[in-house]
Amino acid sequence: MNEWQLLRLIQGHVPAAGDDCAVLPFGGTNLLLTTDMLHRASDFPPGTAPYTIGWRSVAVSLSDIAAMGGRPLAVVLAASAPDWEGLLPGVLAGAQAACREAGCELVGGDLDFSRELTLVSSALGETSRPVLRSGARPGDLLCLTGPLGRTALALRLSSRGELGEANRLLRFIPRLEAGRRLAAQATSMLDLSDSLAHSLHLLARASGVGLELRADSLPLVPGVSLDEALYYGEDYELLCTIPPGLFRPELGVEVGRAVEAGVWLIRDGRRVELSDRGWVHGPDAEGGTG
Amino acid sequence: MNEWQLLRLIQGHVPAAGDDCAVLPFGGTNLLLTTDMLHRASDFPPGTAPYTIGWRSVAVSLSDIAAMGGRPLAVVLAASAPDWEGLLPGVLAGAQAACREAGCELVGGDLDFSRELTLVSSALGETSRPVLRSGARPGDLLCLTGPLGRTALALRLSSRGELGEANRLLRFIPRLEAGRRLAAQATSMLDLSDSLAHSLHLLARASGVGLELRADSLPLVPGVSLDEALYYGEDYELLCTIPPGLFRPELGVEVGRAVEAGVWLIRDGRRVELSDRGWVHGPDAEGGTG
What confidence category does residue A283 fall into, taking pLDDT thresholds of 50, 70 and 90? Predict the structure, then answer.
């Protein structure tokens, strides 16, 4: 069983799960609640600074709030490490800076000890109109909020010892403003924590549509290959669908459209099936079904 | 550095931390947000069933909502394990049952893999009148919602192989109803996740008062010693202070009173200082300052 299979299993058991955040109607609006777990070995390349670790731990949850079109209210962080000496001030400062950047506050946490550094952030948000993964309709345009490959490039730089630039790339800014702009137009949305290929399959499955991606319109971070953009993941841009009449260039980059069925890549004039794969955590981590 | 020292450090860095939950004014009321992390080695004795693990993981956060006098709205659970085979259905069923018992729902989560089983629950609640740790005044009565020693006894039974009864004791019911009843009367409150001795010190420090505990009035689970009740912890009863004129027996058991300064145990007619110690996680885990 790998991580994707686990997450599908939890959706079977927990009906409210399955979107970027849980949506809780409250006081005439909706509260959003999400939680994300990161581990030293699987989520942070060697050379990741404590400040970057703290920043990213919080930013992944804020990105889920962005993916619903929400406004963040607060974040709590639970973290354990073998030894906090020299680690704690940086992690807390990074987590607090990511919250401030997003216009909210780190309001609490739990700290203790474990063999591997493990961080879990939970973010609370609010929106009157949550954008789910399930609203895409054939004919909608497929849009992205920015170029892909940022984490793939960070890992390459990190392995070459270019740690300053690698850390800068790893401290991504959650697309909260873009998410709120899109909330009025988008029919479906998610954040690219997984690979673009897997995210397209998630969106297609949740909406009961197909999706067609045009390779030549895909924005890439300089130095990143199409394969890295398709299959690496952890880009934390927003992927959404917008009815053609509502699309405006300031909302994002148009990269394809929703169709009746299938997940397709159009490349060099040919349309091929895009397999459901990416970089997956877990013992049977071959990645998806493709 | 041990766990208590870590938690004091985080309170220095994160001003909103330091109570059982963060309090977030929202829409004419207050939202409550809390997170708790548990690990296989330090938090679950051998023989703890997956269902009990799931239950307890969620119950510890719901207990924090109870300690503010709050009503729970939802819980999310992040969890990692070396292998989920045979573990996941029980953990999820236990977590969902604890939520149902509390009148809320498990609405989402994150699951992945790590060397040690680690679970982090985050609970969201609401209350118009949060009860903080800081409101105790000299003269208030000190009260408890139930007998102490349940987890100490569970560990003893578990080490003897009496796993059925040990698991039953470990699946404590968060004192949400008691917390809501107390919300109108209590001047300060916290839940006994730590030892009673440490909790008394936390309450005294937060309120700027002293506390006097009468050993002969302390309710104990049958078979538990006074020392276990004072220093073991993980009882998850609520400890609070109530002005004498507002106390009614249905609110709890009166076990002492708030005084000007110091934390004291009255036993066999003598008043002795109660040291700030208990069972603490962490490399320098001698426990507190006493």
Answer: low
Q: Which of B39, B122, B133 is the best substitution to test chain A (most A C-beta atoms within 10 A)?
A: B122
Residue A80's φ and ψ, nearest 5 degrees, are -135, 150
Contact call for B7 and A114, based on CB within 8 A: no
Query: What is the span of the domain harbouring residue B59?
Result: 20-127
Which amino acid belongs to residue B270? Answer: R
Nearest chain A residue (CA) to B92: A13
pLDDT at residue A280 tops 70:
no
Please state, rounded to an integer, the average pLDDT across all residues of chain A. 93
CA pair distance B97, B113, nearest whole angstrom = 24
Residue B9 inside a domain? The answer is no
Domain count, chain B: 2
A288 pLDDT band, cuts 50/70/90, is: very low
The answer on A210 and A154 residing in a single domain is yes
In this structure, the answer to whether residues B93 and B148 fall within a common structural domain is no
Please report whether residue B279 resides in a domain.
no
Give residue-wise pLDDT tens across range A227-251: 999 999 999 999 999 999 999 999 9
pLDDT category of residue A65 using cuts at 50, 70 and 90: very high
Query: In CATH, what number is assigned to the domain containing residue B155?
Result: 3.90.650.10
Q: What is the pLDDT of residue B3?
A: 75
Could you tell me if A120 and A156 lie in one domain? Answer: no
Between B150-159 and B163-170, two packed helices, what is the crossing angle to 10 degrees? 160
Q: Examine residue B284 and state whether it is found in any structural domain, yes or no.
A: no
Asked whether the beta carbons of residue A107 and residue B24 sit closer than 8 angstroms, the reply is yes
Query: What residues contact B8, with CB distance under 8 A and at least 6 apart?
Result: none
Cα–Cα distance measured from residue B90 to residue A143, given in angstroms and rounded to the nearest whole number = 40
Predicted local confidence at residue B284, as pLDDT = 53
In this prediction, what percent of chain A has a pLDDT beyond 90? 87
In this model, does residue A181 exceed pLDDT 90?
A: yes
- What six digits make up the tokens of A271? 């349309």
Mutate to test the interface with B, among A1, A111, A119, A121 (most CBs of B within 10 A): A111
In whole angstroms, what is the distance from residue A63 CA to residue A288 CA?
23
Residue B216 included in any domain: yes
Counted across chains A and B, CB pairs separated by less than 8 A come out at 201
Alpha-carbon Rg for chain B in angstroms: 18
- At A151 the pLDDT is 95
Same domain, B123 and B145: no
Selection from A47, A63, A141, A139 nearest residue A99 by Cα: A63
- Beta strands across the sheet bearing A263-267: A188-191, A238-242, A141-144, A253-259, A210-214, A263-267, A270-273
pTM: 0.94
CATH code of the domain containing B53: 3.30.1330.10
Are B118 and B159 members of one domain?
A: no
| Res A7: pLDDT | 76
Residue ranges in chain B whose pLDDT is less than 70: 279-290
Tell how many helices (H) and how many strands (E) occur in chain A. Answer: 9, 12
Question: pLDDT at position A128, please?
Answer: 97
Cα–Cα distance, B243 to A22 (Å, whole number): 40
